[in-house]
Amino acid sequence: MVVNPQSHLSSHHQPLPAQYQTTEQGRASAEAYYNTPPSTAADMSPKLSLSSTVPLANSKYSIPRLGFGIYQSPTDVCVKSCLTALRAGYRHIDSAQFYRNESEMGEAVRQSGIPRSEVFLTTKILSAGGSPEKTYQKCLDSVKAIDPSEDGYVDLFLIHSPSPGSAKRKEMWQALEKLVEEKKARSIGVSNFGIGHINEMKEYAKIWPPQVNQIELHPWNQQREIVEYCRNNNIVIEAYCPLVRNNKAYEENLVAIAKKYDKPTGQVLIRYCLQKDWVPLPKSDTPSRIEANADLYGFELDDEDMSTLDGLDQGPRGAIVQAVKNDSV
Fold first, then answer.
1. pTM, entire model
2. From 90, 92, 153, 160, the catalytic residue
3. What are the DSSP calls for 70-84, one per residue?
4. Residue 99 catalytic?
5. E strand or H helix at 281, and its extent?
6. Tens-place pLDDT, residues 159-174
7. What are the pLDDT digits (tens) for 31-49?
8. Would residue 61 show up in a list of annotated catalytic residues for this protein?
């Protein structure tokens, strides 16, 4: 193995390539570079953008940092909402069998003219089919509804809830693993799973850890125990209900922060999720709000404001849908 003798140096102190040191312009660039204080150099690192992604564990694929949720988006408006989102720059849409709008999500992508490979599509299975083969067929039906092409696939398939029980969770996970084997799903994961549920999967899973855990997350329900567990196990954390269904739009701390940045409270809440390294899934069927919810990259919440929002956590009682149960199996 060839060892770089300067590998111990930070990127700020490693020399520029030789070609930049042998011309007047190159030497000027190098001088400016080395005279830049390290703190400023750190500020030059890539910032979050609408095209930012997060790598998925044990995979060559990545997931966009911002998603578009379509829960309760009626079939007659869902295609329009997805098209608005795609025009606004979203490249990640989240559906489920339970939402009954999988085909509308896929149709919007086809109508958009954006190549299928450039849009990350998620769905979920809520209940097992009664046997491993029936469950697999149920999942395959979703794939066909979303992407009916011969080589159709979904980017992410999740188990929607741990509620069906241990045996059914195993049946559904094995069906998802078969989807991966058959190249009908690129990545698989879970939703609303606690620590006990994920640890139990080790007993039967060929693919572990699950690549994603989608849970309710916002300042009032931060679920710190499962978040820390997922981070320690390289599981991407998706945040549903990041806008708290507008229930906290007039909370005084949130309003004060929004006023400080001259931004809507919704943008502050989604930006908070991004800075927590969660993948938020804001939902709306109002075109102006869909667009506003993607306009997150011209400001950054400072440490004081992040701390203020962190301090709003109410634990499980702050959930509007559900907090996970970490001690359940």
1. 0.86
2. 160
3. -TT--HHHHHHHHHH
4. yes
5. none
6. 999 999 999 999 999 9
7. 443 444 443 333 434 589 9
8. no
